[in-house]
Write a structure and sequence with these properties.
The protein is mainly alpha-helical. It is built from four helices and two strands. 7% of the residues are buried.
């Protein structure tokens, strides 16, 4: 079997010196022997060290920004639940009116209804399984 690879950071075990991790002097954090610096991250099994402080562009992916999760007020949730109890699908003008009355976007109302239908189906399935378990 081949010998174990040398550590990627810290003090080398033998006389062969290892290169220091990327940007150690710039960050001002000298690596401790055998302990990876707090800012060092391994990328998969490549064995390369990347400093998060020196490569901030790796943090965000290009393209769409991540959507911020909507926090609904208790009044908005009560009204949405009331409408869902009345009908499980809202389209067109109904969705537009509900969204404007709740000061939400149509997209937020649409997604809430989609998520609520999934929750309703899951609850219905669990109730059916509980009934079957009691019977058999």
């Amino acid at each position: 079997p081949p010998p174990a690879p040398a550590p990627l950071w810290g003090c080398p075990p033998g006389p062969t010196p290892l290169l220091p991790p990327l940007c150690a002097p710039a960050c001002g954090v000298p690596p401790a022997c055998g302990v990876p610096p707090a800012w060092a991250a391994r990328l998969g099994a490549t064995g390369f060290l990347i400093s998060k402080c020196c490569f901030p562009l790796f943090k965000a992916k290009p393209g769409k920004a991540k959507r911020v999760r909507t926090i609904f007020s208790s009044e908005q949730l009560a009204r949405l639940e009331q409408e869902f109890a009345r009908q499980q699908y809202l389209v067109g003008q109904e969705r537009c009116l509900l969204a404007s009355s709740l000061h939400l976007t149509e997209e937020q109302v649409k997604v809430w209804f989609q998520n609520r239908r999934i929750k309703w189906r899951k609850q219905s399935l669990e109730q059916q399984q509980a009934k079957l378990a009691k019977m058999g």
